[in-house]
Design goal:
heterodimer; A: Rna Polymerase Sigma Factor, Chain: A; Arc Repressor Mutant, subunit A; B: 437 residues; mainly beta; Jelly Rolls; six-stranded antiparallel beta sheet; 4 helices; 14% helix; elongated
Chain lengths: 173, 437
């Protein structure tokens, strides 16, 4: 036990701030739409704050926060039309159960930068353009002259290359 | 379900492009396959990291940077607002020309134009252009690069399409572009992410279009024939249009090849003349010249047209060929008498087997086109197959006064690939230049 323990509130703020990226990764693996994931993250933050008294600082933060995030994902889905759901309820539970909750997002994001630097310039420009706020495959396809399907497939190939590179990065880091 | 179809479904999910049936298919696969769920998580992790990178508002530099400073969650709305301002200024391809109707930028070398004469920079779309002399390269906003050789009539239609009505073009389509379409009078030639060449000509009545694939694969889509895919080393000629159209691998006895096409802008105009070329554009007469079907016509005017090397298109080649079995001869009319003391000759050669060039020749002069005086007898080099830029050879002699300059071929280069009794052999020459000094 620390000689000068932090107050629960201070500890929670620190944990919540440190795990924003990891929580976003978790939520986005269940709701791939960025805007929805951001909304759910904000709701999760509020709930975590409201439930601060239930948090045991001696236990890992992420599994506890991820349970709250999953609840918020489901709440978000209830507010959405069913045809907007990508995953069926049972598949969502399977994915949530297997989603890594202990992985730090920081090494992933550092590794991604390294992997981006290894991409051919055109591929890097394209994938970064896709992830600019406000960008969509359709608008990007229009400006680059590709069909949306062709562009989506190209983006996927780039993501796959990044995923393979990222795994090598994480193994060696 | 195959891995590729799972990946295709995941691609659609990450880009918010899943339809109902694809959604059901993806769910079924994820429900029943642990491997599929791992694949999903691997790609979702990249998806999230890319969003986070974009959220950082930083521009990419190839040198690995320290980890982004994580923004407290209370700041995310303000951050998103500021990033949206940046997004307004964003443009995917920095090379993309500005303006609503420009999809390509042009860079020229020694160009001459007929009609509209574009400057280097953004090029208007849907505007027919005629590059009369020299070279031009087009860089499309899609990343596609096209090198054009004069004479060439062309039109830009969009970031992934252009028309070539006449002339030669080399097209390079980089990843991640999947398709680039070149429209011609005979049909569409679709580059599937590769490099290929095209020569759009005519037999005088119908289009004759040669194509050669250097890397990857293209699709030929004639208006009235089945689509055909083409791999490197399998050049084709598309002959005619409509019900009479055909796609052939040989013209006469020669396989289709565009091996001598300029695939990038030459640094300098090859073989610039030194001094005033008195022969340029002057009429040339020959007792006969080679003519075969499908635009394989090689008249003597090609000798003074200023076009060098192995260039041109069916019906408009840049070189002269004597009739089969003859070394050939021709006479240039300088239109007035000149003091001349030098001729520069550029030989030619068959681009597949290297024959057809003149070997030994006589040069004669006249002022009345009846009585000719011999001036010199000499030999030309054979041009090796691997040579892409053809050399000129200079032949100097004491200054003489002449209006007519005649070249008589004595013999020509042969190839072991054509037997002695092969009918398709004879002399040829690419260009002649005549100088006072």
């Amino acid at each position: 036990m620390s000689e000068h323990p932090e107050s629960p509130d201070e500890s929670l703020v620190d944990q919540l701030t440190r795990h924003q990226s990891s929580l976003f990764h978790y939520i986005l693996s269940l709701v791939p739409d960025r805007a929805s994931a951001e909304d759910i993250l904000q709701e999760t933050n509020l709930v975590v704050w409201r439930k601060a008294s239930e948090f045991d600082p001696s236990l890992p933060f992420m599994p506890w926060a991820c349970r709250i995030a999953l609840f918020q994902v489901k709440a978000h889905r209830r507010d959405q039309a069913r045809d907007r759901h990508i995953f069926d309820d049972d598949v969502l539970d399977q994915l949530a159960g297997e989603a890594p909750t202990s992985t730090e997002a920081r090494p992933i994001e550092i590794g991604l930068r390294e992997c981006l630097s290894r991409l051919p310039e055109k591929q890097r420009e394209l994938i970064l353009a896709r992830y600019q706020p406000g960008a969509s495959v359709d608008t990007l396809a229009e400006s680059s002259g590709l069909t949306s399907n062709a562009l989506s497939q190209s983006l996927f190939r780039i993501r796959r290359a990044l995923a393979e590179c990222l795994e090598r990065q994480l193994r060696t880091s | 379900m195959s891995q590729s179809s799972l990946e295709s479904l995941i691609a659609a999910a990450l880009d918010d492009r899943l339809d109902a049936s694809q959604r059901a298919e993806l769910n079924q696969h994820l429900r029943t396959s642990h491997e599929a769920r791992l694949t999903w998580h691997r790609l979702a992790r990249v998806h999230a990291a890319l969003h986070r990178f974009a959220d950082s508002g930083e521009t990419f530099t190839p040198i690995p940077l320290p980890a982004p400073v994580r923004k407290p969650w209370k700041m995310t709305l303000a951050l998103a607002a500021s990033i949206s301002l940046l997004a307004a200024a964003w443009f995917y391809n920095p090379k993309k020309p500005t303006g609503p109707n420009t999809f390509a930028e042009i860079t020229t070398r020694h160009s001459q134009w007929e009609g509209m004469s574009p400057k280097d920079g953004p090029l208007p779309s849907d505007t027919p252009l005629f590059l009369k002399a020299g070279f031009a390269s087009l860089t499309f906003s899609s990343g596609v690069e096209v090198t054009l050789e004069a004479p060439c009539r062309f039109t830009i239609h969009g970031p992934l399409s252009m028309a070539v009505d006449h002339g030669r073009a080399a097209i390079k389509v980089p990843e991640p572009v999947d398709q680039f379409t070149v429209r011609t009078p005979g049909g569409d030639f679709v580059d599937l992410g590769t490099e290929f060449g095209i020569a759009v000509g005519s037999d005088g009545q119908a289009p004759v279009i040669l194509t050669d694939v250097y890397e990857g694969e293209i699709e030929i889509r004639p208006a009235s024939l089945a689509t055909q895919r083409l791999l490197p080393g399998h050049g084709r000629a598309l002959l005619g249009t409509g019900s009479g159209a055909q796609l052939v691998a040989n013209l006469d006895s020669d396989p289709i090849s565009l091996a001598d096409l300029h695939r990038q802008l030459p640094a300098n105009l090859p073989n610039s003349p030194s001094g005033e070329n008195l022969a340029l554009g002057k009429p040339v007469f020959a007792p006969a010249y080679l003519t075969r079907p499908h635009g394989s016509v090689f008249p003597p005017d090609n000798l003074t047209d200023g076009r060098t090397d192995d260039s041109g298109v069916p019906g408009d080649w840049s070189f002269w060929l004597a009739p089969d079995h003859e070394a050939g001869s021709f006479t240039i009319d300088l239109l007035e008498t000149h003091q001349i003391s030098r001729v520069d000759l550029q030989n030619t050669r068959n681009r597949n087997i290297g024959d057809r060039g003149l070997k030994r020749f006589r040069l004669l002069i006249s002022n009345d086109n009846r009585t000719f005086t011999p001036v010199l007898e000499a030999s030309l080099y054979a041009i090796p197959l691997e040579t892409r830029s053809f050399p000129f050879q200079s032949f100097s002699f004491p200054s003489v006064t002449a209006r007519y300059v005649k070249i008589e071929g004595i013999d020509h280069y042969r190839s072991p690939a054509r037997p002695v009794n092969d009918p398709h052999q004879g002399g040829g020459l690419n260009e002649i230049r005549i100088f006072e000094k």
